[in-house]
Each structure stands twice: as structure tokens, then as C-alpha cells.
Known about the structure:
By secondary structure, the chain is of the alpha+beta class. It contains 7 helices and 12 strands.
Amino acid sequence: MLRLNSILQLFQATSRSGVQAVQPGRAWCQVLLLAAAGLPGLSQAQTPPEGESTGTATGEVRYLIGASYRYGPEYFGARQYGGDIKPLWAVRWGRWRIATSGSSGLMGFGRETVDGGAGASRELFRNENFSLGFGLRIDSGRNSRDSDSTEGLPDVKRTLRGRLFVGYTLAPTWQLGGSLSQDLAGRDGGLVWSADLRKQLFRSAGGELNVGLGVSGGNGRYMQSYFGVPEGPAAQRLGRSYMPGSGVRDAGLGLSYTRSVSKHWVCFSSVGVGRLLGTAADSPLNQKPGSYSWSLGLAYRN
């Protein structure tokens, strides 16, 4: 089990390296660490639904490895599109798991419904209708030289994020989810929130078709880092400077299909559309408020 003092040593080391954490970041750090340290006892008292094999009771180690291809805009609001291939991998031991983006849900498909997202995560509490979890992940930030549109803007530094996520089953085929993700190192990553509603359209012994509607947003620090344009050469090139406030970032609608090809192999595909909203849509960086994306992948799990 990851112990609280190990996490504290990590943040102390970060502070000694010269990172200045702002007061809100410290407060969120304390809240998230207390959640990780104090709530595991709750999850130990919970048992999965009858007939559900998760491997958590025995501490069985499970893993997944594969690859995915995604095609979509370079960044939120970009006119330029592109595709890339990314590895998929995940490891789970008991209620702990470490995974790349998109891998966690594939590992649990057909076995459980908890998806901790990218990074290291732990399921803290779960009963028949409600789940609660905590996670840590490295946010790569933004290298402004990666795109012509963002060139000349301040880079967004790599940082450590803490995430609280919840899920609630409204009905057998309806699920509601939400998350809060905070920059714990005070590197201008800010706070990001999301909420989504998912409907299961079809389910068979080996496949599942879902449709989902989601909305996300951020506080002023996050919006300024990713959608703001300070005074300078970049503002002259884009036509104006811009300082957004907190609010909604975007909304999206997606359709996904996941199928167990065999006991160990699972494949997936998805397509989605999205649109920037609020202060994000008003940014000079917004070249095209509407966007689409699609992806597919294949993975092996033990």
C-alpha cells in the first residue's frame, strides 16, 4: 500500500527543487492526501456484487497491454487535425492501479465498471450504486512550440495532478460521473472539473455500445494557462491579448463500442463531436469551436 508519508516526501522534494506552490494548491493537496490516507478503510468493508470477479479480494495482479490510434484536433479549438498511435498499458493490484489514458476502462470491461483514468488511482469506496476514487498523474502541460498557433505563448509546465472521481448508477443502463483534477505543485495548471452522463444502448455477452454526453470546465488559472494570451508578440500575431475567467470549457457527445474478442483480447472504437463554450470559445486561440475525433484500439489482458 502507498503510505501517506511517502506522498508527503514527494511534495517536500518538489518544494526544495524550487517550485513555489500557491496557497490554493496546498489546500487541495491536503484535502486529496487526507482522502487517500483516511478512506481506504471504507473500501475494505465493501464487497463487489455477487458473481462479479474483480480480483480485488485476493490481491491478484492483472495487466493490460496494447495500442490505440486517435485522430482529432491538435488542441482544443485548433483548425489543424492529426493522428497518432499511442501505447495502452495498465497494471492493477487489489484496488490500486496504474494506467495510461484509456487503458483503465478496457481492463475492467466485462468485469467491473470503475475507471480510475490515467495515472495511479485507488478505489476508495464502492457499493451497488455509488463509487468514489482518488488518483495521481503527471500532466505534461503544453509546449507552445508544438503548434504554429500557440508559438510564442508561455509554456505550461509539467506538473503533478490529484484527482477525485465519483460515479453513480441512476438506473441499470444510466450512469452519472464526475471528477475534480487539481494541480498539486502550483505550476499554473489550475483546477479542472468534468461531469458526464452515459447511456448503455446495447449489451451482449461480448460487446457493449454506449452513448455519452459530457461537459467540462476550469478555474481562472487553468483557463488563463491554456486559453489566455498575454501582451507581447503572440498577442500581436493573434490580433489581441486575452485574459479569460473561470467557467465552462467545452461540451461533447460521443459514441463508443467495446468488444471482448476472446477471454484475453479486447478491442474498441469511438467517435465524438465537441464544441468550445464560454470564455474558452472567446479566446483568440479558438480557430474552430466545433470539432470531431475518432479512435480505435486493441489490447491483451490476463
